[in-house]
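Input for the complex:
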Amino acid sequence: MGRKVYADNAATTAVSPQVLEAMLPFYKEVYGNPSSLYGLGQEAKAKLEQARETVAKCLGAKPNEIFFTSCGTESDNWAIKGCAKAQLKKHGKNHIITSAFEHHAVLHTCQALEKEGFAVTYLPVHKDGLVRPEEVESAITDKTALVTIMYANNEIGTIQPIPEIGEICQKHGVPFHTDAVQAVGNVHIDVKAQHIDMLSLSGHKLHGPKGVGALYVRLGTQLQNLLDGGAQERGKRGGTENVAEIAGLAAAMEEACSTIDQRIARLTPMRDKLIDGLLKIERSRLNGHREHRLPGNVHFCFQGVEGESLLLMLDMQGVSASSGSACTSGSLDPSHVLLAIGLPHGVAHGSLRLSFGDYNTMEDVDYLLEVIPPIIQRLRAMSPLWDSIQKGQVSYDEYM
Ligand code: PLP
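Predicted:
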């Protein structure tokens, strides 16, 4: 058996043993409905509220500011639609500010609101993969209902100046939402100190289970209900709570948020060694700011290489990686994130994302550096585009 390297932790992560342990009792023993009045239900209810406290503590929030959801996508949809529509109803505000390189959970939600008559400003993202706070401020008008800017990009891993953007929004009295699905556990987050009104997160990116997420909503933020039904989640999202997965999410958050510094200290040298090694490949390009990026994110473009073929050849070497976000791989369109940072299609097509989690090691990095360069060489030997680049008929020099 050859070596296996799972380097796609930005897509999803393995559930940790502690998380699994935390979930099991709710399938086997404590299976009561948290809304039931007898002991078994109340025990489940107590664990649910304990999980809410844990998640709140990890973010610097209050327990009654945490709503459990079914995923990061749901949290994003709820925050954006729920807040924008409440703002329209109460204050007649119909303008949303976001960035061009958000996850589709945000972009498509904003596009859906455009169809309902909202105006959306898609702020440009600079070459370094960062949004500029001053551009957020310039875009704010007296009609702005909401600003939504992601904490860390899921493809190129850049960490946005969230506290600065939050401060600007607070100054102008505009609600501020951030999609922190990739950031939680990798960045210190304090929603109060960082002026965040709403924050989305998801369990499966932090060694927790899939199909569970949370939305933090600062007390006093106007938000329409997501699911009308029972009184669960303070009447704003009806439906019997997924107690087992919520317990798993809380265990994952506790573990991830109490070890952020260790994670940064462990993953950063791995990331940097991989970046330095891959930069030695001729006509390779690191995407996103070198320092303002997630500790486990490496994202490259290799000229004259087709991303899908690269992934297939890596898979044959036991490496699981991605060319962009899990949701867009499978489509042949170049990533909207890479186009947003100004790359042309010809460069954007040759992209590779390698993302590390708690179970990767420096040996994984060494293995990646052993297998990637010869694969690039083989793919280039078959590539008409590489031939044209070599002959000077096509040039992407300005993007290097
Ligand atoms: N937002 C970002 C930045 C993501 O990376 C993802 C998942 O890839 C999501 C939202 C969606 O999260 P979920 O898969 O839990 O719906």
